[in-house]
Design goal:
Length: 78
């Protein structure tokens, strides 16, 4: 099991996510982002706007995801 924070995954806070795979942790981060969006959390909304800019380019988004996957893989197990 590995741990990453919301900030490490492009978000705005120190909420920790614990998972065995990058896909699991990415899903947790996405769910958290949606919850923060529904609450209207200003810092998370700003982070989401930045991610939307990144998502406009498939190549940029794929590169970002690959870098985050590598970062996850390099983390020590909890």
């Amino acid at each position: 099991m590995k741990t990453m924070t919301c900030k490490q995954l492009g978000g705005a806070c120190t909420q920790e996510f614990h998972a065995n795979t990058f896909n699991e942790i990415a899903d947790m981060s996405k769910k958290h982002g949606m919850e923060m969006f529904q609450k209207g959390d200003e810092l998370h909304l700003k982070a989401m706007n930045e991610m939307q800019k990144l998502m406009q380019s498939t190549d940029s988004m794929n590169k970002w995801m690959e870098n985050k996957r590598k970062e996850f893989d390099a983390l020590p197990n909890d």
